[in-house]
Amino acid sequence: MISDTDWRLNGQEDYLFGVVLIRRAYRRNASNPDWDHDHCEFCNAKFMTEGVPDVLHEGYSTEDESRWVCNDCFCDFRERFQWLIESAAVSN
């Protein structure tokens, strides 16, 4: 069980408690093409499409892809935040 004093907790309950998360490959936000990355809402790990060292290329996002959570933080906080998991649609 993660402690209430874990350094990664900073009020995310206000906007991430009970939300639907989808495991997917990271992609740039189409509504803001100048923005090339996002960060994990908990540990600040960087998500990018580019193949640079120490970045993540997939994780869990909200349905609108505005919030991202890395796999480690997902595993650590899944129960605490009571996330609902949805499968990403597979294109043919």
Could you give the topology of this structure?
Layout: H1 13-16, E1 20-25, E2 37-39, E3 46-48, E4 58-62, E5 68-69, H2 71-81, E6 84-86
Parallel strand pairs: 1-6
Antiparallel strand pairs: 1-4, 2-3, 4-5
Features:
single chain; alpha+beta; two-stranded antiparallel sheet; four-stranded mixed sheet; 24% strand; globular
Summarize the structure in words.
A hairpin with a 6-residue loop joins strand 2 and strand 3. This protein starts with 12 loop residues before the first helix and ends in a 6-residue tail after the last strand. The model has no long low-confidence stretch (mean pLDDT 90). The chain has 2 helices and 6 strands, in the order H-E-E-E-E-E-H-E. It has one domain. The protein has 92 residues and is an alpha+beta fold. The protein is 16% helix and 24% strand. The strands form 2 sheets. It has a 4-stranded mixed sheet.
Shape: globular
SSE order: HEEEEEHE
Helix content, binned percent: 10-25%
Mean pLDDT across the residues is: 90
Number of strands: 6
Q: Separation of termini?
A: 40 Å
The number of distinct helices, counting runs of at least 4 residues, comes to: 2
User: Would you identify the regions where 5 or more consecutive residues have pLDDT less than 50?
Assistant: none
Largest sheet: 4 strands, mixed
**Helix-strand makeup class:** alpha+beta
Strand content: 15-25%
Radius of gyration: 13 Å
Number of domains: 1
**How is the largest sheet built, in terms of strand order?**
5-4-1-6
